[in-house]
Write a structure and sequence with these properties.
The chain has helices spanning 3-30, 35-40, 49-59, 65-77, 91-126, 131-145, 148-162, 178-212, 215-222, 227-257, 259-264, 271-280, 283-311. Helix 6 crosses helix 8 (178-212), helix 8 packs across helix 10 and helix 9 packs antiparallel against helix 10. Helices cover 76% and strands 0% of the residues. It folds into two domains: 3-77, no CATH class; 100-269, MetI-like (MetI-like fold, Orthogonal Bundle), CATH 1.10.3720. It is mostly helical and 318 residues long. It has 13 helices and no strands. The longest helix has 36 residues, at 91-126. The two termini are 13 Å apart.
């Protein structure tokens, strides 16, 4: 891929990150009423005016809006997201501790989905109308219909509590106990993978069927190329682009969809501080986690575009 194309995409990603940060900043000031008062309010209890004034000063809400915005952006450039209002712990440190665990869960689920969804989609397309194709289509429809927290609960009931093959949930550092860490990772990763594998199966099947119907495939077969070479060289290469697009979008969606899975399996990722921050109205923590998820989504989109350009150089001309 050309350096000019890559530079344009990186600059566009940075621009979108600035837009997202601006929207998040303005969201606080679009809330009706005094944000500090809302943060301190409990059910039916009016907060003490002195406490409200102290919190406004702590959050910088007593300064002009442009000054607050400039300080907010300056803090982002330094990696400073402020401190939690609950325990006065730096937000960036909490995210740095929790984010790798969430990413590990997402990557493990994505890997399982790729191993299951893509090969089965190709096989179903090549053997269209067969028993495997019909069965897989029904199974994927069922997987898409069942919510992820239901799948997670069923996995716990069946594999953990009934058959006692896997632990029900929790977390063990990989450095301390690799085997236990992988066991605890398996069930939530499978729960994460269930919807993505179904989507990848359907997209791979549709893209492969579309590629098989093109004239260049018939020409390759007429030249005497083996079915495996036709499939790998001519079909899959052209079917990968839509699959990569769907994979990138779904991975971005998983960033915000792992909350229930982490809760069901007691996996200590970003969901725990996010839920605690929402319940405790911990504004800096909520903003920090939302910004982190948004930036990661933009980075995933950038990676998808780079993969597109590597698979099909014509994309760079767009």
């Amino acid at each position: 891929m050309s350096a000019a194309w890559l530079t344009r995409r990186i600059l566009l990603t940075l621009l979108m990150a600035w837009v997202v940060a601006t929207i998040v900043f303005l969201a606080l000031h679009m809330v009706p009423g005094d944000p500090a008062e809302l943060l301190l309010s409990t059910a039916g209890v009016v907060p003490d005016p002195a406490s409200v004034a102290e919190l406004r000063e702590k959050l910088g809400l007593d300064r002009p809006l442009l000054a607050q915005y400039g300080q907010f952006l300056l803090g982002l450039t330094r990696g400073d997201l402020g401190n939690s209002l609950v325990d006065d712990y730096p937000v960036i440190q909490e995210i740095g501790l929790r984010l790798p665990r969430t990413l590990e869960l997402i990557l493990a689920g994505t890997l399982i989905a790729l191993v299951v969804g893509v090969p089965s989609g190709v096989y179903a397309a090549v053997h269209r109308g067969g028993a495997f194709d019909r069965a897989a289509s029904w199974i994927t429809a069922l997987l898409l219909a069942v919510p992820v927290f239901v799948i997670g609960t069923l996995l716990v009931l069946l594999l953990a509590q009934t058959l006692r093959l896997m632990p029900a949930g929790g977390y063990a550092p990989f450095a301390q106990d690799p085997g236990q860490h992988l066991k605890l990772l398996t069930l939530p990763a499978v729960a994460i993978a269930k919807g993505l594998s179904a989507v990848l199966f359907r997209m791979t099947r549709a893209a492969t069927l579309d590629a098989l119907a093109h004239d260049y495939v018939r020409t390759a077969r007429a030249k005497g190329l083996s079915p495996r070479r036709v499939l790998v060289v001519h079909v899959l290469r052209n079917a990968l682009n839509p699959v990569v697009t769907v994979l990138g979008l779904q991975m971005g969606t998983l960033l915000g969809g792992t909350v229930l899975v982490e809760y069901v399996f007691n996996w200590p990722g970003l969901s725990t501080p996010l839920l605690r921050a929402v319940e405790g109205r911990d504004y800096p923590m909520v903003v920090g986690i939302i910004l982190t998820i948004s930036v990661l989504f933009l980075l995933i989109n950038l990676l998808v575009e780079m993969l597109h350009a590597a698979i099909d150089p014509r994309v760079q001309a767009a």
